[in-house]
């Protein structure tokens, strides 16, 4: 082996190269497992369980579907997988991502491109990217005030004016145990990709 190691061993047995990820080394079971164990807000959330990225992803998908009823399954899958690279690189808070800059984004984009290729997802259209960003921001607002100790004024200043959650989405703000989050994320993925 020449140079520093840049791969991570997955529980599936796959060896994922973080700098040059191959779609062949990506498994939804690894993604669901990893995201269910990555804490949002660096773990600074209320409740007996961490609020994990898998649960956040389900919330973003529910919000996106509420904003745009009738979304095709591929667009809903794009919402669900918007933070999928975090299953192996973790969830850095936005201020730290900004401080790190392009190197983090480069790795994240390569991983997301490999994930899209693995699941035959085309790059999202500009309006789908906008929807992901909007749904992610709405989720962040509600997570901030319900879980992360922000005041509504602080959350509004950072994430914008609050947008009501769609019916049933507020239940996704109650943190689950990791095995529950993993199972629900995995099930939702398969509901959106019955052929996978």
Task: Summarize the structure in short.
This protein is mainly alpha-helical. It is built from nine helices and two strands.
Describe what you observe in this structure.
The chain is mainly alpha-helical and 196 residues long. The protein has one domain: Orthogonal Bundle (Hypothetical protein af1432). 53% of the residues lie in helices and 3% in strands. A two-stranded antiparallel ribbon has the order 1-2. α2 (53-67) runs antiparallel to α3. The longest helix has 21 residues, at 126-146. It is globular, with a radius of gyration of 16 Å.
CATH class: Mainly Alpha
In percent, how much strand structure appears in the residues?
Answer: under 5%
Spatial separation of the terminal alpha carbons = 34 Å
**How many helix segments?**
9
Give the helix proportion (percent range). Answer: 40-55%
| Arithmetic mean of pLDDT | 93
Q: Strands across the major sheet, in which order? A: 1-2
CATH superfamily: Hypothetical protein af1432
Class by alpha and beta content: mainly alpha
Instruction: Briefly note the CATH topology name.
Output: Hypothetical protein af1432
Radius of gyration: 16 Å
Total domain units: 1
Identify the overall geometry.
globular
The CATH architecture classification is: Orthogonal Bundle
Return residue spans where pLDDT drops below 50 for at least 5 consecutive residues: none
Oligomeric state of shown chains: single chain
